Q: What sequence folds into this?
């Protein structure tokens, strides 16, 4: 099993929904209102100067679906440029 965390600009929710569907993912956890700054984007800090926020989508799935999901995120990053989407993957050793 793998965990994939997609962190993205809240404005990209429709794009992330399409990515999940294209990768065959139906189960996930959303983390709204994530604050932060990436290397290529403006800060998203929910303050007057930088009012935007990010969202996180956590998926725990089989390794092959995780790889497919990462491919879809890579494609989205090429299409969207610095609009703000990134994904991280790691091994899940156990779950209940």
A:
């Amino acid at each position: 099993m793998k965990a994939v965390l997609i962190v993205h600009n809240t404005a990209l929710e429709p794009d992330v929904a399409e990515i999940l569907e294209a990768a065959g993912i139906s189960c996930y956890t959303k983390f709204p209102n994530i604050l932060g700054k990436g290397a290529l984007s403006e800060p998203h800090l929910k303050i007057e100067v930088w009012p935007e926020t990010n969202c996180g989508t956590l998926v725990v799935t089989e390794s092959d679906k995780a790889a497919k999901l990462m491919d879809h995120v890579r494609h989205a990053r090429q299409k969207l440029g610095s609009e703000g989407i990134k994904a991280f993957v790691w091994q899940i050793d156990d779950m209940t």
Notes: The mean pLDDT is 91. Helices lie at 13-22, 63-80. The first helix runs from residue 13 to 22. The longest strand covers residues 2-9.
